[in-house]
Inverse folding.
């Protein structure tokens, strides 16, 4: 290896480290602040690290703010939306990929046209609908509007289209019913698609902000994101406690990123079609 | 589709049920698969579109019921009032965030694509903002951008720059929110660009090396054209995303100071859910939609010519 290429490598590593530091700095800094004793938070010049980690900040914020409840709410809502969307989308995606019926092309075009509509156009009527159903401050109010999407249908249709039609013919000659073929052959074969849709849906529901803000005003029905929004009001300028709450709220998604990066990335890329 | 005759045969072999019933089931079954999705889309997408259009023609009461028909007055009002200023803020925000976000994403991807040991670790690090929601990221940055005790102003002071009132100075607020938004989006842009780079055939680079092309020449003449469909896609999606920014603004500035960050979406939220003028807000939402469609169309017209598809 020549000296110049070794020098280039060194330079590249330096650039990688610098860029990496800038990218994760806000995350690490939040963790660091969350472990500082109150006296070290607002000093000047600011400290980068606590003199000794103060774990009690976490206990304190958990006592004054129902962080556990926020996480549970988000988990229930995101889980239900994910399951529901995978269910509705796999049924309709399968029908568009495997079945022939009158009006199929028109219905498919109708489904696809909804992908163009941004949420701010449907926001106000949906709020009025949920309110007139008396579903404000309920899990149903945060789950129902998101149980079906054209995007999910389209994504899973693309996965089902990769399964050869002959497979269904063969299975049916052997006496396999239509629904049984869907349930025990097509669905398992489309598993990567289901996982992709699932991870994407879970994460985007978990990160939802405006909708849960609109339909909840009771503290115990807040999701994680809304809980974070009110942390600053509720904890004053006590940044060590605010950041302890923030870290508790961002831990699950960070864990998912580290563990499921592959599906996450694929899901995000597929999902970004919708924006 | 090809499988049709065989399917008919299969239906006929089910001797247990009468022929007509099997056929009927065969015909109805597809609609049963579609019904759940279709019903939900009708209730929560199609009906709301129609109702938005309808509401936009009325003065509504705080319950959201139409009261006085005003025709296109809401639209006319929007085009003569501060709606246009909000649209200007929104367009400026798009201009601040999208090009810089794309360039930084590309730079990080090029950096992490080098054949070095440990790049997988850096790839994870660079994609980390993916796991940070807008609400959480904004809260962290509010602390970091604090004009007195914030770490950002401290770091600036180390290199001799004077402190900035990031979120309370009208000329700084929008760039500051934009900066946070770029960071939040950078993980996504990075991942997108990286996977595009990984799909560029290795032979192309080798051929360029043989011809003596340096890194910059290679990037400009091979890499960028090869990933131009992804760049174009990221630009279109990025513009739509920037148009809809909400959580960052709600948490960091609430539209202020003096409307410097009052984007259209934030304004619609305030008109509808603070002033309860659902009719006027619906009209503005529809205008926003029209502007987005036009901009996306322009992007396609301009972009398609430059994008290189294999």
């Amino acid at each position: 290896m020549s000296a110049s290429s070794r020098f280039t490598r060194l330079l590249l590593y330096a650039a990688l480290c610098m860029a990496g530091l800038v990218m994760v700095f806000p995350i690490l800094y939040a963790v660091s602040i969350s472990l500082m004793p109150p006296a070290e938070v607002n000093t000047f010049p600011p400290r980068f690290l606590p003199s000794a980690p103060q774990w009690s900040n976490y206990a304190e914020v958990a006592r004054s703010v129902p962080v556990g409840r926020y996480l549970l709410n988000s988990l229930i809502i995101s889980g239900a939306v994910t399951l529901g969307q995978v269910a509705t989308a796999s049924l309709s995606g399968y029908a568009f990929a495997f079945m022939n019926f009158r009006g199929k092309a028109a219905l498919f075009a109708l489904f696809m046209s909804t992908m163009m509509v941004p949420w701010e156009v449907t926001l106000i009527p949906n709020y009025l609908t949920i309110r007139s159903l008396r579903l404000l401050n309920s899990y149903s109010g945060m789950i129902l509007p998101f149980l079906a999407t054209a995007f999910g249908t389209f994504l899973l249709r693309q996965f089902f289209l990769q399964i050869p039609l002959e497979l269904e013919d063969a299975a049916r000659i052997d006496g396999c019913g239509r629904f049984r073929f869907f349930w025990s052959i097509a669905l398992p074969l489309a598993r990567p698609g289901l996982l992709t849709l699932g991870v994407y849906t879970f994460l985007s529901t978990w990160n939802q902000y405006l909708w849960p803000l609109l339909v909840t005003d009771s503290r115990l029905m807040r999701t994680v994101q809304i809980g974070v929004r009110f942390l600053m009001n509720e904890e004053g300028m006590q940044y060590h406690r605010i950041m302890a709450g923030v870290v508790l709220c961002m831990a699950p998604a960070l864990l998912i990123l580290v563990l499921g990066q592959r599906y996450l990335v694929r899901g995000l890329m597929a999902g970004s079609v919708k924006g | 589709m090809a499988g049709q005759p065989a399917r008919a045969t299969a239906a006929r072999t089910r001797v247990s049920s009468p022929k007509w019933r099997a056929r009927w089931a065969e015909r109805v079954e597809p609609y049963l698969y579609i019904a759940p999705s279709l019903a939900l889309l009708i209730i929560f997408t199609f009906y709301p579109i129609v109702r938005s259009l309808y509401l936009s023609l009325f003065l509504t009461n705080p319950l959201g019921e139409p009261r006085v028909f005003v025709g296109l007055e809401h639209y006319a009002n929007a085009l003569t009032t501060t709606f246009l200023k909000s649209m200007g803020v929104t367009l400026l925000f798009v201009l601040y965030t999208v090009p810089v976000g794309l360039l930084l994403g590309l730079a990080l991807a090029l950096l992490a694509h080098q054949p070095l040991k440990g790049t997988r670790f850096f790839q994870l690090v660079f994609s980390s903002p993916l796991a940070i929601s807008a609400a959480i990221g904004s809260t962290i940055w509010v602390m970091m951008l604090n004009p007195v005790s914030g770490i950002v102003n401290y770091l600036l002071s180390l290199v001799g720059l004077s402190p900035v009132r990031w979120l309370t100075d009208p000329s700084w607020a929008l760039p500051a929110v934009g900066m946070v938004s770029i960071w939040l989006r950078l993980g996504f842009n990075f991942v997108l660009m990286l996977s595009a780079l990984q799909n560029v055939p290795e032979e192309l680079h080798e051929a360029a090396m043989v011809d003596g092309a340096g890194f910059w020449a290679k990037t400009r003449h091979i890499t960028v054209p090869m990933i131009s469909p992804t760049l174009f896609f990221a630009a279109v999606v990025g513009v739509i995303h920037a148009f809809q920014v909400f959580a960052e603004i709600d948490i960091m500035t609430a539209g202020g100071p003096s409307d410097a960050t009052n984007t259209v979406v934030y304004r619609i939220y305030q008109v509808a859910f603070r002033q309860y003028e659902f009719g006027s807000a619906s009209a503005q939402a529809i205008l926003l939609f029209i502007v987005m469609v036009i901009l996306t169309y322009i992007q396609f017209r301009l972009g398609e010519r430059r994008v290189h598809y294999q």
Observations:
- Residues 20-73 of chain B form one domain.
- Strands of chain B lie at 58-60, 66-69.
